[in-house]
Hints:
Distance between the termini: 87 Å
CATH architecture of the largest domain: 7 Propeller
Structural class: alpha+beta
Low-confidence stretches: 7-22
Radius of gyration: 40 Å
Mean pLDDT: 83
Number of strands: 31
Shape: rod-shaped
Helix content: 10-25%
CATH class of the largest domain: Mainly Beta
Largest sheet: 6 strands, mixed
Amino acid sequence: MRPHGALVRILLFALLLVAPMFAQQSVAVLPPLADGNVGSLTRNVVRSAFSDYISAPDSGFIAYDRDHTDLLIKEMGEQRSTLYDENSAKSLGKRLGVDFVCISEITKEGDELLVECKLINVETGQARTESRLTRGGNEEVRSASEAVIKKLLGIDKIEAKAKAEAEARERAEAEARARAARERVEAEATKAGAETGVYAVIWDYKNNRWHYWKDGKEVPPFRYDGFSVGTYCQSGGDNYRLASVGDRLAIAKNESLLHYLPTDVKDARTIAVSSNGDVYAGGWEQSRATVWKNGSVLYRLTEGKTYSMVGALFIFGGDVFVSVDEVDSRGMGRDVTTIWKNGSVLYRLTGASRSMDVFSIFVNSDSNVYAGGKDGNVATIWKNGSVLSRLLNPNGKSKSTIVKSIFVEGTDVYAAGYEGKSASGGTATIWKNGEVLYRLNPVGLYDGAQYLVFVR
């Protein structure tokens, strides 16, 4: 039996050592003072609310035994009116051996009750005061009392912190789920865009959505990394776009602003990203066709005597190719369209009409420069400045066709664009070597829609 008794003594000694680590601060809750208009039930509601919240889990406090408190008050012979005196309450707290004393007063003002409470530190004498005005029955009084004691004990801060932490966890979990979902979609889109086939991406202004095709059939979205669709571009797994921010034009990367363009920029039509992450944009500034690199002017390509605009942009190796559409400086009502390389004119395009526009440039490994656009109302592809093919609308000469994107694979030249009944609607079309390969949809598309074609 002796070993067993020794073990008990050891355990008791260990408990005595550990107990202070888990000790809670004790609070004696005194009966509330109240005028004659406040009933005993209301006083009990207030006192019970204080005691319950003082002893709430994780509050760090515990309410001292109520009966023992009342008994000692009776033994001291204290008049109830003196209980709201801080010095008397402190003296009582020392006799009770508690850390804090909670004294309160309830005052009736018309149909409202004012619940006022003080929490007195028995050791320092420091007192904190909080009050709450309420109206209604005992449920409302209890709610007001709970709010008062929570404020004094700092439980409201604990609850607010716990709520903030829970909300932060929920946000983090939601963001993780959303990120995982995006990654799954991106992985599927990357895989889909890596398979062999003829791909097309078209922005449908009429229906306010993107369409994706592979080999003439509409499919779920896929990544088109390394290619531009007018004012959009994908590169290195990131999405770039030209955006309006107030009265300024800017370049955005994913959902974040990357570069502002200069304040004088009125319009930008095209964007491209080099393999090292530099972002190029083309448009016009002060009537001059202009190219920007990472938000700053790289080239001003024309003199500004007549209106000019960069219509297409292509980065090949370290070289910057652009097309420039400019009103004829002789005032003959004829546009001049040129292809530039690194700020100097490379080709002046030949044409049969007074109006030419280029919307796409492609440079292949043989350094041949292809351009796609329109010559009058006929979709046209140029190679090194000369007409390679005209993509006539089979419905008649009065109908229009436009090339918006070109891609060269070996000796095959692919083009994406538009066969239209008028300038306001038509059919998205893919051509290969001057012949229709696919008509992608019967829905009317505006000729301003953005197109991309590429081959894997």
